[in-house]
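Duplicate of #3305? Posting structure anyway:
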């Protein structure tokens, strides 16, 4: 963890913490955010760069086929200001907006329902077809923060949903076989949908609840087998 402000090689100017202690803003990147990874060996850097290459393809698929935006991001190899070793920085476009569960300037219940339907469809397709699948994008923290923001990039006028958690967490599944990301989605989606329903009103989410019931019915037997195995360990 870095101090709250200072210099962040290889970026010019000073940086300051923006969200907690792992996401920073820098003087020469006013419309971008910088995230520093914890790795400080070239071996781990290579692994991380490979992981980001895979997740970037998944992000592109999410945008092209499902209409969910992901801010552009690039990788920069620099020096860790603490131990002077190599470090990987992720430079991401800054989204100006609010979290998913926000009344003022936030999305409507209908818009959130559409997002939930899209996420359910994404994981249904991944279960049916297999392939690389994004992990851990449906969870909500105890404080009500999700992996999505509703807002826009600098210079834009229209708000939209962005997946802002771009950690390179990807799994690979076989057609009609449960893999770890799909299992996580099956466990997380009911929770986030219930929270959205409580926040925006249940009548806004009838379509999403219907799609979720179909998804759960499709995977019911395999999920129950997985739960029994987990409980027996």
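Output from current build:
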């Amino acid at each position: 963890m870095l101090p709250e402000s200072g210099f962040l090689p290889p970026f010019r100017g000073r940086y300051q913490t923006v969200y907690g202690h792992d996401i920073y803003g820098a003087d020469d990147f006013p419309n971008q955010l910088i995230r520093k990874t914890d790795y400080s060996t070239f071996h781990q850097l290579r692994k991380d760069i490979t992981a980001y290459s895979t997740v970037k393809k998944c992000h592109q698929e999410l945008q092209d086929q499902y209409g969910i935006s992901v801010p552009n991001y690039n990788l920069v190899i620099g020096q860790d200001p603490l131990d002077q070793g190599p470090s990987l920085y992720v430079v991401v476009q800054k989204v100006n907006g609010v979290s998913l569960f926000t009344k003022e300037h936030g999305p409507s219940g209908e818009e959130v329902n559409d997002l939930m339907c899209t996420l359910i469809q994404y994981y249904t397709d991944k279960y049916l077809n297999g392939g690389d699948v994004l992990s851990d994008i449906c969870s909500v923290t105890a404080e009500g923060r999700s992996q999505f923001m509703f807002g826009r990039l600098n210079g834009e006028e229209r708000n939209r949903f962005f997946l802002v958690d771009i950690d390179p967490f990807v799994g690979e599944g076989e057609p009609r076989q449960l893999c770890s990301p799909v299992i996580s989605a099956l466990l997380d989606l009911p929770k986030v949908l219930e929270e959205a329903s409580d926040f925006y009103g249940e009548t806004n989410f009838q379509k999403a609840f219907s799609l979720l019931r179909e998804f759960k019915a499709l995977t019911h037997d395999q999920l129950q087998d997985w739960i029994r195995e987990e409980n027996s360990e």
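Confirmed duplicate; merging threads. Residues 50 and 116 are 30 Å apart (CA to CA). The first helix runs from residue 42 to 66.
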